[in-house]
Amino acid sequence: MRTRNAIVVGSGPNGLSAAVTLAQAGLRVTVFEAADSPGGGARSGEVTLPGLVHDLCSAVHPFAAASPFLSSLPLEEFGLKWRFAKLDAAHPLDDGSAALLYRSIAATAAALGPDGPRWRSLFEPLAVRADDLVGDVLGPILRMPSHPLMMLRFGLRAAWPATTLGRYFRHEPARALFAGCAAHIFRPLNRVATSSVGTMMITAGHRYGWPVAEGGSSAITNALAGLLESLGGVVVTGTRVSRLSDLPSHDIAIFDVGPAAFADIAGGKLAPRRSRAYRRFRYGAAAFKLDLAVRGGIPWSAEHVGQAGTVHLGGSAAEIAAAERLVGRGIMPERPFVLVAQQHVADPGRAVGDICPVYAYAHVPHGHREDATAAIVGQIERFAPGFTGRILRVHASSPGDFERGNPNYVGGDIVGGSNTLRGLVGRPVIARDNYATSIPGVYLCSSSTPPGAGTHGMCGHLAARSALAHLR
């Protein structure tokens, strides 16, 4: 029987996950990557001082730990090791206190005081059944779920605007902690279904934690690539695919690229209606990121914040909502929402002596062109006086830099498209098969397909399963 050939274009976590799935099914797989190194958003490098490793995009990986596909693979045999901080996340407030997100839901509830029982009532029913929930959430929404009652429970929380669900809590620490998690959706928090991402991140944290990859996010890429090679697959870097005719003979081709980019590659072979839909695909707010070399780490005012792998900065829930609303209108807020990752807390080997790598990005308008360095540093200084004096080196990545480094990040949108209700339900188009392109044997698997952003590999895995089903 003839061995089937498969091509994957793009070597981000989704592209490599698609390639591994196809290779496991016995296909001969070749991955083409335009950049000189594989990884897409899961790459690391020295961008400030020699020996100091920074994650270039994805840094903390709650959905990777939760991923049914990644957890099924022997990635530890190829060098991947998860590291966990004592605290998943912290949210400092202006009064010098901080709300704390522990992996333990009991510890989180205890730290939230009077809102602790409400926190447990909202998230514990999901966390205890998270193994059943993630398989349905990390996939297309428009399908019959494997666990309908769990999806209903999730949906009853996820469908609310985050500003509305946040009012379930009576005190600011719990409201702010939820708002910071909800802000990962990159949308104004008064919009419908903006509770979805935060609810799932909190659920995943209480069940699986928010880990980092030991040695940097490139370890995820290296493990997937190593597994692929052990299955007979090949990764070819420095090779750009500009049109379908660039591909060698194949039975399946899967593209880890954005919808508009794929429309350019496919040209007239794509059905006109699908081509128009791909070119109209909407992108959302952007990230402006700093990689900093900091002597002695960040001197947080609030106790325990230095033990957190992730820190959300934005003040109160109302202040975060106001900042996200401005970004949604294309206006840069004076005090933007900022996410800080302290990977060295979980993975001490990231530090060089007392010099620590610090990762921080702000939510900014799509395609924002102005330098947001001062705004990000100002938000950290606000909750960590003296921080500025500890900075040894800064490397800034604007929305334009993100797009130049990875064309999938259109306008600096690092989550693969606007998370409107329509975008959550059917991306890149509402269709029976979100991965099929209308060209026989050709599929999409980027984060612009379900379930969206995150280093979980599920977009690639599900696209490959769809391709295999049609091949059979």
TrEMBL record:
It holds the Pfam family NAD_binding_8. InterPro entries: FAD/NAD-bd_sf. It comes from the Bacteria. PANTHER family: DEHYDROGENASE-RELATED, PHYTOENE DEHYDROGENASE. This is Phytoene dehydrogenase-like protein.
